[in-house]
Amino acid sequence: MALFIGLMSGTSIDAVDAVLVSFTPHFKQISSYSHPIPDSIKQRIFSLAEGHEESIDALAELDRDLGELFAEACLALMEHSGQAVGNISAIGSHGQTIRHRPEQSYTLQIGDSSRISERTGITTVADFRRRDVAAGGQGAPLVPAFHQGVFHSDSEDRVVINIGGMANLTGLPKNSAAHLSGFDTGPGNVLMDGWIKRHRGCAYDKGGLWAQQGQINTRLLEQLLSEPFFKQSPPKSTGRELFHQGWLDNHLQQLPSVAAEDVQATLTELTAISIAEAVKSLSLDNPALYLCGGGAYNPYLNQRIQAQLPALTVKTTAALGIEPDWVEAAAFAWLASMTLTGQPGNIASATGARGPRVLGAIYPA
Predict the structure, then answer these.
(1) Does the predicted TM-score (pTM) go above 0.85?
(2) Tens digit of pLDDT for each residue in 46-70?
(3) Same domain, yes or no, for 332 and 256?
């Protein structure tokens, strides 16, 4: 049985998700591990990702240190699962995105893959997004092909919605010959997390409890929804380059003072509405919605999504056999397996690339 490790560190920067999986004869999750990211490294990622720090030395040092951190996550996962190095076919590492500007035809994920391979003794596949961008695509989302492979149903249309720092979706028509769609919908948790950290010192709004204490400010919501990205037609993707605390502050400055808890409630509604409007734009017949990512564990956010789409069922991917935390990491393990067998990993209709491409660079053990 061929085993693969998938590594994911997303725009929420909450942890490195590491998952051990097999794809033969069918997908099977064997083990998982969440590796903490030290606060000092988080701050360096934020500084680079949001443009506060732009020196080459800072970039190179963070690339080095993230490579070491990702290797530690792999080694901890193998110890946790009792697997030896020789049992692992490859590691698929997403890396840490610090710039994503597809409109300028570039994207950059760091986390020195040479160090991951050297420290673990396992072939590592990384840098998945840039080949798609080179082919005219957005470089994101790359998970739709994996979603199609593991979540497709012949009996119902489905939408898989990943709510990480940013949110993206994949529309899966039950007719496998029909058009598959996938794109970023806008901010997921990134604005909510940043706002509660500023005002309450918490990493995230657990259960959406703080948002529930506030009232949705309709003027603020209308201003936030006026962002052109929301009206842009797919293919499209986004990141912290657009949706960050400075973007929110610019909107707040144009309004009378808004209570902090009301801002949190409004940000939650922004995520819910932008996801709901994206779902409505799909040519699907009463699709079932399946949430993954950290936002899947926010009951209030889920309620607001359901309120926007009352005719549809909203569940998490746990109902399909994969816990929400591990879907993206599993996807990059799958992408590594595709790269090693010379098979395309992108869906051109989702990313906008000129066609299917074999993604990633291979760093041999």
Answers:
(1) yes
(2) 999 888 888 999 999 999 999 999 9
(3) no
